[in-house]
Specification:
Radius of gyration: 20 Å
Largest sheet: 5 strands, parallel
Strand order of the largest sheet: 1-5-4-2-3
Distance between the termini: 61 Å
CATH architecture of the largest domain: 3-Layer(aba) Sandwich
CATH topology of the largest domain: Oxidized Rhodanese, domain 1
Length: about 170
């Protein structure tokens, strides 16, 4: 039976595993070996290393712009909150793909549309957007979050929005 360094590290008592894993990775780096921690580290590294002012603007969308795209059928709104949060309240039309399920549900993302990640504020949406970009999907995050979106879908605006969505069907 052959044993490699990685399997030795993984068999270390849990309370020491984090420290040992760091030592293992640092040792590989010191030896000049490049081992990505995750399969798509190279894509993420490329995204971050080419990040500029244009990319900074391009990764964001506000709720007024999103509403216009949704009314035209040109956007997909993905609510990345936990299922319980989504069940308590949601903004239509959105689909719920919780952040922790995102890596396993990429097939549900419509890459032909502007993909917008959203949560109540924007913290989890930013994480989701960066992850999707590391997968080659040009996602955006909702800068004013679902809270801002709901502020822009009140009263007559909500009726006009829903009427526009009905015309798409």
């Amino acid at each position: 039976m052959t044993t490699n360094a990685f399997s030795i590290v993984m068999n270390i008592d849990y309370k020491y595993k984090g420290t040992m894993m760091k030592i293992f990775v640092l040792t590989l780096v010191f030896l000049g070996l490049s081992v990505p921690l995750y399969p798509n580290d190279k894509q993420l590294e490329k995204y971050i290393s080419t990040f500029d002012y244009e990319a900074r603007v391009e990764m964001k969308i506000n709720s007024k712009w999103l509403i216009a795209l949704l009314e035209e059928g040109e956007a997909q709104l993905i609510d990345i909150r936990f299922p319980e949060e989504y069940a308590a309240w949601k903004v239509g039309p959105s689909i719920n793909i919780p952040l922790n399920e995102l890596p396993h549900r990429l097939k549900e993302i419509d890459k032909t549309k502007t993909v917008v990640m959203a949560c109540p504020h924007k913290d989890r949406a930013i994480l989701a957007m960066v992850y999707l970009r590391s997968q080659g999907i040009k996602a955006k995050y909702l800068t004013d979050g679902l809270i801002g979106l709901t502020e822009n879908l009140r009263g007559d605006k909500a009726k006009r929005f829903m009427d526009a969505l009905q015309k798409l069907k």
